[in-house]
Structure formats: structure tokens, C-alpha cells
Design a protein that fits this description.
The chain is mainly beta. The chain is built from 3 helices and 20 strands. Strands 2-3-4-5-6-7-8-11-12-13-14-15-17-18-19-20 form a 16-stranded antiparallel β-barrel. The chain has a two-stranded antiparallel ribbon with strand order 9-10.
Length: 366
Amino acid sequence: MNRAFLFLIGVLFLLFTSLHTVSGEQIKFVSLKGMEFTLGGELEYEYVDTENDAGIDNPVGHFQLDKFTLTPKIKVSENIMLEALLLFSSAGAYCSEAYAVFSNLPIFNSRLKIGLDDRFINDIPRPRTEGYALIDTAFALDDDFGITWYGEYNSFLWFLSLTNGLELDTKSTFEDNSYHIFHDNRPVKEKNENKEVGLGLGLNNGFGSDSSLFILGFFFKGRLNEDEKDLLIDIDRELVTGSDDSSFYGVSAEYKLNKLTLSGKYISGLDSGLKRDGWFFQIYFDLNLSPSSSITPLFRYGVLNNNLENDPAEPLTWDRDNTTVALLITLVPGVILKTEYYINNEETGDAGVDNDELLIQLEIKF
């Protein structure tokens, strides 16, 4: 891990020689049509080290540019906003999000979002670390085309969505591209005329200025297409039953008390004969070091299970749990140094694998 400490020294040197150029605020322009146009973005540069194992895709500790993003926003009117997320990485560049938001609708001042964006459960509770919980990677971590109507009345809130639906695929759990899990992925093209419907109902209640409680229950329902069924057949022919139902339900919760935050999520899903379920619990504490800097220790534990017999040769069949320990240092607004360690455990049906990971990331937002 000596290279990791050298990386830290280099990062700190760069920070203290250039912090005065970072404000964390979006740049504002006026378009030719007289509309207010703001441009923000984010740069993530990191060091990743994975435990050495024969099955690891990249066992050597290395530096990498995780991503560079631009987030333009256009204020069409007081009640209409256009927003997008353009993502650039070593793998390529693409439009990750692009949608319009219509605000202050006649029904309880609700909002309507039209376009490409994450499932509404992705940021509930909002992630603080670079690494996501296992169930978020499985169910919530991708973008979908559609319409979402949402709002809040007093402490009651709701979401109702109609989208193309994500496609059952596979994805790695953290930085290393090995030992994939089932993952609801953004399809290359629309292949299913049966759209996905999502419903969320919850409460967002404050208790004075020091504490608040947020709870959201949700349900999504769609149908599998032929490619998804083929994926399941490749694992186990018995996974494709007479039903092509694809659905999941769950609950998210977050409690804040001064600088302490407790949060968690539970999800259970069914894709024909494949059952997946899991949960996580997270706790972190924000400590102010100065008016512009803070330090946040964080702990998260989560599990992801399925109804398949563990096969050492097929990672998709494994049950898993993860422990994440992180230290997030906000040096100035918009500049965060993240140190995260992922302790990964897999029930393989045989000997375990060594695939814990260390991540040290410099995140700069502008």
C-alpha cells in the first residue's frame, strides 16, 4: 500500500497549491434566447488497490480517472427546468441523464419529470461514498427513459413513474470488474412494449431544527424481455417459469439527529423464477473542522441474497455481504478526499475469494 500513501501526499500537495481556484458553485451564463444557463461538473481521480486473487480483473494497485462530468441546467421559465449529466471516462463518453422538470403543477404544487434519469429510489437515502450498497447496485444504479410525477404535501410525499424499464444484466459490485452480480441495467435499445410502473409513498417529517425522519415505501412492476430470459436460462433453465413478471418492492429510511445520520434500505425482487433480496444499514457523523471544512467517518453493512445454489464457477449464484468503512474529508466546499475500504464476503459453495478493495479518491465539484 506504499503507493497509496504516495498518492495521498501528491493529492495534498496539489490541493494546497490550487484550492483558491475552486468555489464549488455553478458557472452562470445567459443564452441567446435570454434563458439562465448554469454549468457545473465533477472530476474524480482515484487510486484503487484490490487484494491479489487469480480471479480479479485488475489485481495491481493503480491510479485512474474515474470520471469527469458536466451538468448543464437551463431555466426555461420559473416553472420549467432542463437538466442533463454528460459523463466522460476512459471507457467513453455519453449522456447519462437528460430531462425536463415542470414545477408548481396545480395538484399540491407537484412536479413532473420527463426524460432520462435514475429510478427515483436511487438517491433515497442519498449516497455519501463512492461505492454503493449491494442492493443499490442490483436494483437502483442506472438510468431509464420515462415520466415521473412526484411531490410533497405537508410531510406526505409520493412518486408515480411510467418508464421503458431497465433490463436484467450483470455488473461488478465495486471498482474491480470481477465477480458480477445481477443488475438492472439501462438497455441498449427498447425491446419490451410492456413498460415499468413505479409507485412510492412516504413521510418526510422534521422534529424541530435538530432532527428529521424520512421513510419511503416503493413498488416497481414490469415484464422480462427475451434477452433477459436468455440470461436466466444460461444460469439455470428452471429460472424461467410460465411467468415473465419482473417486480420488486422495498422501503428506505433515514433519521438525522444534529450531525448524526442513520439510514437503511430493504429490497426484495422477483424476475420470473429468480428471487433477490437484501438490505443495508449505514451510520455516519459530520464533524466540522472549520466553517468551510469537515470530516465524516462512515460505516455501512449490507447483504444481497438469491435463491440459487451457490456454484464456485458462477459468481451470479453467490450470496454476498459487504462492510464499508470510510473517511470523507471536505477540504473546502466542492473538494472531498474520500478514503474507503470494502470488505467483501461471498458464499461461493467452496473456498472464498480475496477481493477486498481500497479506494482513495479526490472529488472536485465546480
